[in-house]
Amino acid sequence: MLGMRDDRWQRERIIEIGLLNNMPDPALEATERQFLNLLAAAAGELPVRVHLFSLAAIPRGDAARSRLKGIYSCASAMAAKGLDALIVTGTEPRAASIEQEPYWHSLANLIDWAEHNTISTIWSCLAAHAAVFHLDGVRRRPLTDKRFGLFDCNRTGPAAAMLTGLPSTIHLPHSRWNELSEGDLVTHGYDILTRSSAAGVDIFTKKWRSLFVFFQGHPEYDVDTLLREYRRDIGRFLRGDRSEFPTKPEGYFDGKSEKALRTYEALCRMHRRPELLEKFPTCMTLRSQSVRSWRASAQVMFKNWLSYIAAMKGVRPRACSTPETFK
User: Fold this and answer.
1) Within this chain, do residues 240 and 212 fall inside the same structural domain, yes or no?
2) Looking at the predicted structure, is the pLDDT value of residue 75 above 50?
3) How many structural domains is the chain composed of?
4) N or C: which end of the chain has fewer CB within 10 A?
5) Catalytic residue chosen out of the listed positions 51, 134, 174, 218
6) 218 in active site
7) Is 322's pLDDT higher than 60?
8) 152 within some domain
9) Is residue 150 in some structural domain?
10) Options 16, 32, 101, 220, the catalytic residue
11) pLDDT reported for residue 326
12) Residue 42: which of 299, 301, 310, 307 has the closest Cα?
């Protein structure tokens, strides 16, 4: 009988996390791996179980649909999992405004469900833009160029629990075509936790029934993700899928690598052919100190987030309402 009580107590301690992976097909598996690895590293002795979900309205190719069918559940199954918290990724923007995206109706309904049925939800990049627009009408603003690189982000105001144990300045990667105005966010009651003089608002929060945490950056990224994105965008330029040569990720490479990339860029501009992608410099050296600190900072932030969820599990009941319209 004692063993049965122990088993039940252990099951009730498990933090049930949903990961709604909206990333486009080429980044689907990498994003899944990044968040799973980050949560595993951050959990420590906390028991965490992650459930993978997808939105049917996200356009997919055959290979991605096959993978989703094998290990992902439809988003409408979230309530049945008794989730404590949720992570919602962004995706590559296709439309000029968020409400024109093919998945908008499904995502808007999911935002409402998460507000009333999770202890906390993390909204990443485009998902953060979607959530603040749906909840408060705050629109993202298009950038003249991709906000791309590794940026110094400074803590603002009193220390927030999410940032406990972190230095006053942390390094975090950003990769986006739009941004949110700090003034708009503050006017609508959002708390700004970190900002960058070069990249703008980084992390911010707002407490409804659920604590919503918003990332404009990507703390989950692998150390080489920005490098792979840059190479991918160069390939698009060489194939003629984009008109301008992509901007290098800022603050990411050392001086020697920057020089090699400038030489390579000149070659691509002079002889624009797809086969030149094979000549992309392979010996790139990253700013190792900044990269190490970003990975360490991400782990601390997610450890703090999981600790908050664990503390709140005994305070509020599990999710119970059924999401019927965000399949």
Assistant:
1) no
2) yes
3) 2
4) N
5) 218
6) yes
7) no
8) no
9) no
10) 220
11) 56
12) 299
Q: Per residue in 239-283, pLDDT tens?
A: 999 999 999 999 999 888 999 999 999 999 999 999 999 999 987
Over the chain, what is the mean pLDDT?
90
Asked if pLDDT for residue 200 goes beyond 90, the answer is: yes
Query: What does the pLDDT read at residue 3?
Result: 40
Residue 10: pLDDT over 80: no
Cα–Cα distance, 24 to 4 (Å, whole number): 44
The answer on 200 and 129 residing in a single domain is yes
**Catalytic residue, candidates 125, 129, 134, 174:** 125
Residue 109 covered by a domain: yes
Q: Is 125 a catalytic residue?
A: yes
**Do 137 and 14 belong to one domain?**
yes
Q: Which two tokens stand for residue 101?
A: 């995206």
Range of the domain at 229: 225-279
